[in-house]
Design brief:
InterPro entries: AAA+_ATPase, DNA_recomb/repair_RecA-like, HHH_XRCC3_RAD51B, P-loop_NTPase, Rad51_C, RAD51B, RecA_ATP-bd. The chain is α/β, with parallel strands linked by helices and about 280 residues long. It is built from 13 helices and nine strands. Helix 7 packs across helix 8 and helix 10 runs parallel beside helix 13.
Length: about 280
């Protein structure tokens, strides 16, 4: 919740602009400063800054709710709690599809179709609710330059020929999928941190990162001293913001990962840079 933008903490537009000039854009940025520092950047009195601190703290603090209220909120409309994959066996295993409000990690060896699955889920998210979709836009962060617009149109036309029966509908669907190619850990994290306002302005209903492992493996050799800690920090920060976005806007977030095989003392070992399972957050040691 600390990743919430200050603009959504109901501060004045003028104050938000002033703070942004000092790179203070989130509740976390604001709350990490001392009262004296805040007085300097805001130009306000000690008393007014204390009121601002209380206001920002309340805005980013999770609202208290009982276990019953949490269960009730999810059971009011079961259809909106999941994005169906339209694959009956997979939906059955997932108890309805990819869950909204949490992170889902798709992990497999290279070449098993993770990107194809993500492209298909992108199409599904743009479909009307009456067809099992979310009737919204998609943010697709591609770290491997593997996304194919031609494949997107091909999947849409083959899976739903009755709905996508014209070039105009296909064109409208492609305009709802916002693709970002981020090839470094820094650019991926920067993009993730900037998604909140984009989710609101573009009515985003699905976030996809394909894949987390690609940028991590390129930049962090865990055999080098300090790299393991840096990798863990990157994954923790990214997962924290993504989990906040998923919960705050009740949207599914899909991440892909790769399993690789390495040899250690003649034994095959399976490795993966885990980010999180579907409903929890587990980070590498």
């Amino acid at each position: 919740m600390a990743a919430k933008k200050l603009r959504r903490a109901r501060l004045s537009e003028e104050l938000c602009e002033r703070l942004s000039r000092h790179q203070i854009t989130t509740c976390q940025d604001f709350l990490c400063l001392s009262i004296l520092e805040l007085m300097k950047v805001t130009g306000q009195s000690f008393y007014d800054v204390q009121k601002l601190l209380c206001k920002v703290s309340r805005a980013c603090a999770p609202k208290m709710q009982t276990a019953y209220e949490m269960k009730l909120r999810k059971s009011v409309n079961q259809s909106s709690a999941f994005l169906s994959t339209t694959l009956h066996s997979l939906d059955k295993v997932l108890h309805g599809g990819v869950p909204c409000g949490s992170l889902t990690e798709v992990t497999s060896p290279p070449g098993c179709g993770k990107t194809q699955f993500c492209i298909m889920m992108s199409v599904l998210a743009t479909l009307p609710v009456s067809m099992g979709g979310l009737d919204g836009a998609v943010i697709y962060i591609d770290t491997e330059s593997a996304f194919s617009a031609e494949r997107l149109i091909e999947i849409a036309g083959n899976r739903f020929p009755a709905y996508f029966d014209s070039d105009e509908k296909l064109f409208c669907m492609t305009r709802s999928i916002h693709l970002y190619r981020e090839l470094t850990c820094g650019s991926v994290l920067k993009r993730i941190m900037s998604l909140e306002e984009e989710i609101i302005s573009k009515k985003v209903k699905l976030i996809i990162i394909d894949s987390v492992a690609s940028v991590v493996r390129k930049e962090f050799d865990t055999k080098l001293q300090g790299n393991l800690a840096e990798r863990s920090n990157f994954l923790a920060r990214g997962a924290s913001v993504l989990k906040y976005l998923a919960e705050e806007f009740s949207i599914p977030v899909i991440l892909t990962n790769q399993i690789t095989t390495s040899l250690s003392n003649g034994l095959a070992m399976i490795q993966a840079d885990l980010v999180s399972p579907a409903d929890d957050l587990s980070l590498p040691e």
